[in-house]
Design goal:
The protein has about 220 residues and is of the alpha/beta class. The chain has a single domain (about 5-220), classed as Vaccinia Virus protein VP39 (Rossmann fold, 3-Layer(aba) Sandwich). Helix content is about 25%, strand content about 25%. The protein is globular. It binds S-adenosylmethionine. S-adenosylmethionine binds next to strand 2 and strand 4.
């Protein structure tokens, strides 16, 4: 019997996500996101929440709900819950979180932002990247399921709209950046063929699909 790759813990969907490095185009997109996040880092230590199997190269520590993710990265990481962070007040300059708020029941999401605000120093930043809902995402997922590239749909709570992410951040932080990212070529990021990485330039030139929301908030001084 194959090992379980996801579970529900206290309502949160924790999982071992797909290995990004097996998907050459997706790997390049993550590198682009890493660079974008780097531009928004504040001074001080950086924490990445719910990093899955890919922690930002500038993160000093990560926190993950799925134990084997926390154990498998080369950087320091702890197993834990983003709704109750095991870190002291004002101990970080930046908190990063990518593609994970939709794994937590809607009523718990503000707690995550409050916890991020608690562990950040005044002037510190929260940097979030979340998938947006929409027809193109539904179609892409439909294709992936048909091709057998996705086995189970764990996105039971649905994705957050741009406005949802903005509102969560704005309750605790001054929003300093808000933009969407994504291209119709996102569908090709599922491919494992090395050839797919050559689509990256075209992916960059066709940024008119709202696939991700990128929001940076700053904790008031
Ligand atoms: C879709 S994956 C995204 C992983 C990674 N951030 C990325 O972009 O590749 C969602 C991640 O959130 C983690 N997660 C979900 N709820 C969590 C919680 N309450 N606390 C910590 N991690 C959580 C899951 O274990 C999973 O690794």
């Amino acid at each position: 019997m194959s090992e379980a790759t996801w579970d529900i813990q206290d309502g949160a969907i924790v999982e071992q996500p797909r290995e990004i490095r097996r998907h050459p185009l997706l790997a390049r997109i993550y590198e682009r996101h890493d660079a974008l996040i780097s531009e928004s880092l504040s001074t001080g230590r950086t924490l990445e929440l719910a990093f899955g199997q890919h922690m930002h190269p500038d993160a000093d520590v990560g926190l993950e709900g799925w134990l084997s993710n926390a154990q498998s990265v080369p950087d320091p990481a702890v197993a834990g819950d983003a709704r109750s962070l095991p870190f002291e007040d004002a101990s970080f300059g930046t908190v990063i979180g990518r593609r994970f708020l939709h794994h937590v029941p809607p009523e718990d999401r503000q707690r995550i932002l409050s916890e991020a605000a608690r562990v950040l120093k005044p002037g510190g930043r929260v940097v979030l990247l979340e998938g947006t809902p929409g027809l193109y995402r539904r179609l892409t997922k439909g294709v992936a399921f048909r091709l057998g590239l996705l086995e189970e749909d764990t996105d039971i709570y649905g994705h957050l709209s741009e406005a949802d992410v903005y509102e969560l951040v704005a309750q605790e932080f001054d929003v300093v950046t808000k933009r969407t990212l994504g291209s119709p070529l996102m569908v090709a990021s599922i491919a494992e063929s090395d050839l797919s990485k050559h689509l990256y330039e075209a992916y960059q030139r066709t940024q008119f699909v709202k696939w991700w929301t990128f929001v940076v908030g700053e904790k008031p001084a």
